[in-house]
Amino acid sequence: MNYLLLIICLACASITLNAQTTQIQEPEWVSNVIYVNDIVGNGIALEKQKIYSSTKTSTSLKLIGVGKVSGENCVKGEESPIEIRLANSLQFIVKAESNKVDPAILINIIELESSKDKRCIELASINSLGDSRSGDMDYVSFTAKKYGESSYLITIPEIKIGEFAIILDGYANVYNLFQVTGKDYKVDVTEPLWNFGDTVYFLAETKWQTGIVQEIRQGLLVEFTNTRGKSKQRRIQETVAYKENPNN
Question: Check: CATH 2.60.40 for 187-248?
Fold first, then answer.
């Protein structure tokens, strides 16, 4: 009787474990990364771009001759089209040639600096006095374990709103890109319809913005002032628009 009870308990434990285990298929190609949005299914493939080199001259160097010139690796576009909601932790599956290598050596996750039409990582800089320094990269901490035949399941336990790249050693000229856009707040569908002139809260350029509704057609046309102090208009969906500040 005790032996039978033990078998039943082990079977139940196995069922529970399997129910909580990620079963998403590995990416097809080496260096590809997918976001684990569920424990089953295909996941979401990250944006993939080849980098290009760029230089940036500080405004002060242009105006008064004191400042710095920076060398950067960049990708096109101010924001990634792959939007991931802020959560307690995020998981990704990274396809490698082998998962026998320490992932801390093989994989880097870095925050990018977003500007008008690009996202960049500063590699090095030199100031007007001739002093040079390596780029101050914002590395994101993660844990990892073997997954499938040659992949890693990586977990980011803590992350902030922003633009990010997952980079594999040996494939550093190609970035796997995503943005973290903020918490997935629920929208009360019983709220009254939007009206012209309403104040609206929404995410733009990875930051919470306040705007004014200008038009209600195919979503909301919102006018707002961006982080560089310029007046802009953007059409957003009502499902990502809020009547009260979600941060309060």
Answer: no
Number of H helices, E strands in the chain: 3, 19
This model's pTM is above 0.85 = no
Contacts of 63 (CB under 8 A, 6+ apart): none
Per-residue 3-state assignment (H helix, E strand, C coil) for 39-91: CCCCCEECEEEECEEEEEECHHHHHHCCCEEEEEEEEECCCCCCEEEECCCEE
pLDDT score of 3: 47
pLDDT of residue 50: 96
Count CB neighbours of 94 within 10 A: 28
Average pLDDT on 191-203 reads 75
Average pLDDT, the chain: 78
Angle in degrees, CA 156, 97, 38, rounded to 5: 40
Domain ranges of the chain: 24-183, 187-248
**How far is residue 22's CA from residue 111's CA, in Å, rounded to a whole number?**
26
**Mapping DSSP to helix (H, G, I), strand (E, B) and coil, where does residue 104 land?**
helix
Binning the chain into helix, strand and coil, the percentages to the nearest 5 are 10, 45, 40
Tokens 């012209």 map to which residue?
196
CB 58 within 8 A of CB 68: yes
Mean pLDDT of 15-31: 68
202 Cβ contact partners less than 8 Å away, ≥ 6 residues apart:
208, 209, 211, 222, 236, 240, 241, 242
In this structure, what token pair is assigned to residue 156?
Answer: 């980011």
* pLDDT score of 191: 45
More confident residue, 131 or 82: 82
**Amino acid, res. 243:** K
